[in-house]
Amino acid sequence: MNRSNYGFTLIELMIVVAIIAILAAIALPAYNKYRIKAAEGACQAEMKNYANFALTAIYTSVAIPPPPKNACPSADTATDLDTPITGTPRAPGVAVTTCDMHTANCTL
């Protein structure tokens, strides 16, 4: 019987699919954590930038503009030095960023 085998057997393909499924199950939770951290980091950076800009506007007696709503769709508008501003990141981010207006330091 001179029969040549070309291709893969069904068992070999099932093993490859199972390995890919296991790798995906390991990688997806880590990927989601990185997405959350990226959203929160972008919001923190945007709020820090706005706090610095608002701080400059307060010290130079210029009207304080509203905050940008790119990475933080719900961000407070700065009013004075004694009121901290907060911003909530876009989904999937959950940690609220709070900025002290005296120093423009922002924390999650």
Automatic annotation (TrEMBL):
Entry's transmembrane regions: 6-28
Keywords: Membrane, Transmembrane, Transmembrane helix
Protein known as: Prepilin-type N-terminal cleavage/methylation domain-containing protein
Keyword Membrane (UniProt): yes
Keyword DNA-binding: no
Stored Gene3D superfamilies: Glycoprotein, Type 4 Pilin
A Pfam short name: N_methyl
